[in-house]
Fold each of these.
Amino acid sequence: MKLVTFIYQSQRGIGALTGDGIVAAPDTLPSDMPTFLQAGAYALAALQASIDGGAPRIALAKARLLAPVPRPGKFLGIGLNYADHIGETGRDTPAYPTFFTKQSTCVIANGEAIHVPKISEKVDYEGELAFVIGKRCKNVPVEKAREVIAGFTICNDVTVRDWQQRTPTWTLGKSFDTHGPMGPWLVTADEIADPHKLALKTWVDGELRQNANTGDMLFNCYDMVAYLTQAMTLEPGDVITTGTPAGVGVKMQPRGYLKPGQTVRIEIEGIGTLSNPVIAQPDGFLVPAWV
């Protein structure tokens, strides 16, 4: 099932994408993704029953898709998780997973614009598989980790490189507004037989920049769940993005940083395509339109 968060006639809802339409979850179910996922199998079964029962479809053209989790409680990324990317950076292979935080206000949806900020031109793309937690969990063993993952989506871990390098935590350089494109939907875990056998490709305009397979991850999705939950409780709606392969702009000659007018497109096998235009940061001191 492809779960979506959408707006239709000024109302936000949760639904499933079926063809070119959306079947909205019944009114008795939560209307935000974390709470919907927390309801577990009951919520998924009720939504499936609506689909099977011929519930009305909302035309996709008449709705607006948001990021599947517009404001995750935790938005965590892992650095240096593909051998070829470690090689291009010249860094040592980490002995342990290296996690950082992206602030949730950076999240935008498929089709929304990535801003090149006025204070830096060193804006880079990072095509990544992401997974979303479906159950509150702690101390999860590797062999049980799949049971707490609700599904998978695509993330662009947009990074402002000069700001990233100012501090060892990387948080500011990873958290600029609009620098967390995610979507276009959440594919439930039952539809992805093995998340570590998926082709991943990133284009900037028509140029293929990244071409890899998720099987090349140093620490896989289940390793990440097991490691993180030794330290913290993960909760429904938390998003973990799993690292990027080689081909980032900072390592190109000349540098392949993003410029206004370009489009970044990331495709992951079995999930779909995340595409976002790039624009200059708009003038003004305003509340962002996507909030």
Note: The CA atoms of residues 78 and 97 lie 7 Å apart.
Amino acid sequence: MADTLKPDLCVIGGGALAIDLALQAAQGGLDVVLVASAATEAVDPPQGQLRRAAFLASAARAQAIRTGGQVGLDNAEPKPNFRAIGEHAASVAAATAPRDADERLAALGIAVLSGAARFTDQRSLNCGDTAIRARQFVLATGAAPVIPPLPGLDAVPYFTPDTIADNIRKLSHLVVIGGTPESLELAQAYRRLGAMVTVVPQGGMLPGFEPELVAVLLQALREEGVVVRDDAEVTAIVPRSQGTGVTLRAAGGEDSLDVSHVLVAMGRAPLLDSGLLDKLKLRRDRLRPDHLLVGPDGQTSSGRISAIGGAAGEHQPHVAARQVNLLVERLLGLGNGRLDPRHVPLFVVTEPALAQVGLVAAGKPRAGHNVLRANLAETDAARAAGQMQGAVRLVTTRGDVIVGAGAIGAGAGEIVAMLALAMARGLRLGDLGRLALPQPSAAVALLDLAARHQAQQPRPGWTRRLSGLRRLLP
């Protein structure tokens, strides 16, 4: 006879996000069942994000050795050991494994089930011999890399952002297909570790990011030796006995590359297993049929089923983590659980880093909007570190209300995170000018922006009269 569980929450997924949601919900006092899916673990390993960060840190250290002359040290050419770099990244990630172990989850009161699962209706899920009737189901099944239908691609071995983490060899010439944050982060890292790297954005470079700031980033990458072919598109992959050929279509005609390895980084698509979801008939997004239609709280067309992270089409880890927080708050009756996209920062973890939030569109500002700019390279922090690239772009509306910001350079992520919080709390530009920030700090550029903006504002008539009266007094 099948067992029946009736928890407050059933989380479906085997990756880091699903585990985080189960832990937070259990800590909040909810009865939780986690249905771990082996299919999602391959694309969303619990330690995958940390492993990537450790690899990027190794590449950054290599560049620091190479450019030591900027701060009075001898320049030296680093000698990367890819096996050692990979082992270091894997060991850093593995250190967190006990946190996600099934035994620990069970000790915290989370029932962990594994195996094939399928919904029988919108109120019930079967996993093996167990039936689950939860108050709320959450899809945290992750997302898989998008693989374009390029002729010849299936005839050669190629990397994705998930599989390249297992590489332990130096790559002589890597072509990166895609213009996503992942593509640029990995392109820069492999260039810093000695590979020739060519990036072909394949239709768009960092869509959604402000072009003025993207141009600064691309210039920095080119100065490091990354070749960016934003004038071309890959049309075919040509297998060869030695290496791989890449056929390009450019404005001037057809071109080709000889490369050793291919990395496909064109974004991700939700993992929505038909065997799991077929009975539900959940509505799809008309513009993106491979995505579920979800509301700002992650709710699908079924009132009992939500989606977060890759399953909901959200692939930035920090945003997915915030979705978890808000969902738990909603289940506990502590808030509406909605994520305001206007206050969600976007990041590209390159050097210089790129970050933005809110309305930062290029071109002529909207009526009533004012665009303010500051040079991050002119801050004392940038001068001290020898980091001579960077900018902040701030968009305000009437009454000095901040509606958008973008930054590139050292400290860009921290600056934009601070501005996102200011926007969410309704702070104005003048409020930022009253912050007491440590020196030297890249965020001091915000104080400079606020001071310059304030100085340009017309002073009230009584202030001018008071200043004149003071000049008359002895």
Note: Residues 48-66 form the longest helix (19 residues).
Amino acid sequence: MGYPIYETFYSWQGEGVHLGKSAFFIRLFGCPVHCPWCDSAGTWHRDYVPERVDKLEAETLAKLAAAAEPELVVVTGGEPVMHDLESLTAELGKLGLLRHLETSGCREISGEWDWVTLSPKREAVPVQSSLENADEFKLIIDNDGAIDEWVAFLSDQIDGRPVWLHPEWSQHSNTDILNRITSFVKKSGSPFRAGTQAHKFYQADTLDPNSANPSPLGGNPKLGY
């Protein structure tokens, strides 16, 4: 089975518990969620999708990842769980690669994973099994009430697993959002952690010529989403 590939590139993990580790990224094409501030709109948005999307076999993808000699392999999207990931994780595992998944959890997770980062989205909330399989949560804080909204949603899932509070990227200089995150973390403590997309400050991903051009929506209603 071939996987539709938007991009593959070598960089480092810019978010979460594994921040700073060298990582090979496999970004799959396709997403049913359609967030209005998506920063990878080329995986689904009509104004940004590439003219051609190649499909690669799991074995080929695993060999590409292994050639980079990363500390871990991150499978992301788009929304990767819309694909059957069994064969991909199997091939990555054969080569001894650590397999990390980044997902909204809107569908059940297939395949064997060493780490799962779940970032819930309003447009397609996570299914229960995906919530239970997450190793960490990443909450996107795009307005003043988003923290309370997502903490209430997670409720009984807040059990010691890290819960990252990330300013939505178009809001990363909004002091109101940043101060809201800071105040909440100082008041609540663990498992809540202040986070950001550190790789964007470095522009680390774009240093690999195989990475696609950024296509962030930034919540622009003129784009129709």
Note: The helical segments are 58-68, 86-94, 128-133, 146-154, 175-188, 198-202.
